Amino acid sequence: MRPVASFDRPVLATERLRLRRPEMRDVAAIVRIVGQRDVAVRLSRVPHPYGAADARFFLDAVVPGEWCWAITLAGDDALIGVVGLTPGAEPGAAELGYWLSPDHWGRGFMTEAARCILSYGVETLRLTTITSGYFADNAASGRVLEKIGFVESGRAMRPCLARGHDVASVEMHLPPGTMA
Ligand SMILES: CC(C)(COP(=O)(O)OP(=O)(O)OC[C@H]1O[C@@H](n2cnc3c(N)ncnc32)[C@H](O)[C@@H]1OP(=O)(O)O)[C@@H](O)C(=O)NCCC(=O)NCCS
Fold it and tell me: Where is the N-acetyltransferase domain (predicted)?
């Protein structure tokens, strides 16, 4: 079955989190988090410094074309991170990406959020190929992917806007038939 063609983002709930569509009211939170160099250097597409215009570009030009959710704590609307599936070139393919505010690192939140949208991607969107990747110096992200079932598929150089050069990366994929 082909994946759903629209980019609907229903509210999804996990034990501790609520995932909702990112909105313009999130600009300040996005800038506060993604503007931190510690976060930006671990991401491919984020410039540094990062300001409100960059966050508005993300909300206007990126969010509408991706299955992308704001992560909030259950019972609190404030954005603390983003998790998303970027459609790939082939039908049924997407790439998992995410970032979280450093205030909340190390509590299993990203594993919980990523697992939730992987289920959505597989069960609702009928995605058949889900890939991801992380810079080789970002072991925490590698661990998140490993915990939700990804395995290494190769090594590559990926661009990093914040560092201004390509960075050694580990390419990952979810083996066919694997459920998060
Ligand atoms: C990567 C990131 C999303 C992790 O979020 P998180 O909520 O802290 O992740 P979790 O708590 O679910 O899991 C982190 C795991 O990495 C482990 N870890 C943390 N730092 C580590 C390190 N330096 N080396 C090895 N493992 C590490 C943790 O112990 C945990 O594993 P465990 O459950 O087996 O103990 C977060 O650090 C982040 O947003 N970083 C900046 C942006 C980013 O890196 N995005 C991903 C780009 S590929």
Answer: 17-177
